[in-house]
Amino acid sequence: NCTMEEKRKNKRMELESQIVLNRLDIADGGETTANINVKDVSKSGMGFTCDYPLQIGAVYECLLTIWTKETIKAFVEIVRIEKQEESYMYGGIFIGMPEMDAARIEVYQTINDEDNR
Questions:
Q1: pLDDT in tens, 34-52
Q2: Minimal CA–CA distance to 101: which of 78, 71, 77, 76?
Q3: DSSP, res 65
Q4: Which of 30-69 are b and which e, b meaning 16 or more Cβ less than 10 Å from the residue's Cβ?
Q5: Which of 57, 55, 48, 41 lies closest to 8 in space, CA to CA?
Q6: What is the DSSP string of 17-55?
Q7: Are 86 and 97 a contacting pair, CB within 8 Å?
Q8: Rounded to whole angstroms, how far apart are CA atoms 25 and 44?
Q9: What does the CA dihedral 109, 70, 43, 89 come to, rounded to 10 degrees?
Q10: In the chain, what's the furthest Cα-to-Cα distance?
């Protein structure tokens, strides 16, 4: 979809990983966790699939395991939802990600781009 590509501020890359989400915007909502499969990630956001229905506009805490096996704690706001056959495809933007963590993602993008030339 060309319009979605144009909305992205940073180049995306595919990263197969599992993360856990905790919903933050409901005070007594309990701690719901779900494994998700990250399809693409940039320093500004990510796209992922999840079997559990999440809500657009909701903010979740996520523990993102990156390619170095390190875990980045981030907050993600759901901005796009697309129903697929047996799961949902989500687009989320990172909120308040520390520059150090964003830089770790950006470094991987640079290395990944060089490898794909």
A1: 788 888 888 899 999 888 8
A2: 71
A3: E
A4: eeebeebbbbebbbbbbbbebeeebeeebbbbbebbbeee
A5: 41
A6: -EEEEEE-S-TTS-----EEEEEEE-SSEEEEEESSPP-
A7: no
A8: 20
A9: 100
A10: 49
Average pLDDT of 66-94?
88
* Inter-residue contact 13 to 112 (CB < 8 Å): yes
- Dihedral (CA of 30, 35, 36, 38) sign: positive
User: Looking at the predicted structure, is the pLDDT value of residue 96 above 60?
Assistant: yes
CA distance 19 to 37: 7
Eight-class DSSP state of 13: B
If you ran DSSP here, which 8-state letter would residue 61 be given?
Answer: E
- What's the whole-number mean pLDDT along residues 75-82? 94
| Euclidean distance between CA atoms 42 and 93, whole angstroms | 9
Q: What is the DSSP string of 73-112?
A: EEEEEEEEEEE-SSSEEEEEEEES--HHHHHHHHHHHHHH
